[in-house]
Amino acid sequence: MYSYRVNEIFYSIQGEGKFAGTPAVFVRFSGCNLSCPWCDTDHSHGEKMTKDELEDAVRKLLADRDGAIIVLTGGEPALQLHDDEPLFQGFARFLCIETNGTQPVPDWVDWVTVSPKNALDPVVPRPNELKFVFEPEHIPYYLSMQDAGCVKYIQPLARKDGTSNLPEALDFVLAHPRFKLSVQLHKMIGVR
Ligand code: SF4
């Protein structure tokens, strides 16, 4: 049996992508193979959990909350998932992952959101949605992906000083309608 390093597990609203607005239990795994300068995840903290402990914690948060989804996030959650140890199999829940796309994702995950970083081509063959955190220097890369057979989001870069490049991201989407603007709903309404 594997162990998992988990930063936090909490119940909130999915703020991004197709499921924006949907109540969700988030499992935030610790650790990432990249180091984006704007990253807001504390990678230093992580509680070691077994599969049973992880599933029990999620089950408690899901109790009496039919319709809520489960979102695996990070850090980079795919670093800690295994083909031969599916998670949440007995759960009648929709299982999503938010990944930087550098790692394979087991096929027991229902919905894959890839957010490529540093213009790295994802190794995930058929993501359900792509989300690009907007950096103008990577526009040629975004355009190279505009025919990908899934929804493609442009999300303004939120800087640590509280500013963002929303105007530039909006201009890009208006000029390239194959992309959609993604805003972080959870931050707008002041929840995690
Ligand atoms: S890929 Fe995501 S979790 Fe990893 S360093 Fe970049 S922003 Fe942080």
Write up what this structure looks like.
- The chain is an alpha/beta fold.
- The protein has a single domain, classed as Aldolase class I (TIM Barrel).
- The protein has four helices and nine strands; from the N terminus they run βββαββββαβαβα.
- The protein has helices spanning 51-62, 139-144, 166-175, 185-188, and strands at residues 3-13, 23-29, 47-50, 69-73, 95-99, 111-114, 129-133, 151-155, 179-181.
- The radius of gyration is 16 Å and the shape is globular.
- The mean pLDDT is 94.
- The structure holds iron/sulfur cluster (SF4).
Brief account:
Helices cover 17% and strands 26% of the residues. The protein is an alpha/beta fold.
Q: Which keywords apply here?
A:
TIM Barrel, alpha/beta, binds iron/sulfur cluster, 4 helices, nine-stranded mixed beta sheet, 192 residues, 17% helix
Q: What is the typical, i.e. mean, pLDDT?
A: 94
For the record, what CATH class applies?
Alpha Beta
Strands of the largest sheet, in order across it?
Answer: 3-1-2-4-5-6-7-8-9
Spatial separation of the terminal alpha carbons: 31 Å
**Percentage of β-strand residues:** 25-35%
* Fourth CATH level, the homologous superfamily: Aldolase class I
What's the CATH architecture? Alpha-Beta Barrel
Following the backbone from N to C, one meets helices and strands in this order, namely EEEHEEEEHEHEH
What's the number of helices? Answer: 4
Which kinds of small molecule does this entry bind, naming each only once?
iron/sulfur cluster
Stretches where pLDDT is under 50 for at least 5 consecutive residues are none
What value does the Rg take, in angstroms? 16 Å
Please tell me what the overall shape is.
globular
* Most strands sheet: 9 strands, mixed
**Which class of secondary structure composition applies to the elements?**
alpha/beta
How many domains, in number, for the residues?
Answer: 1
Per DSSP E runs of 2 or more residues, the count of β-strands stands at: 9
CATH topology title: TIM Barrel
* Assembly annotation: single chain
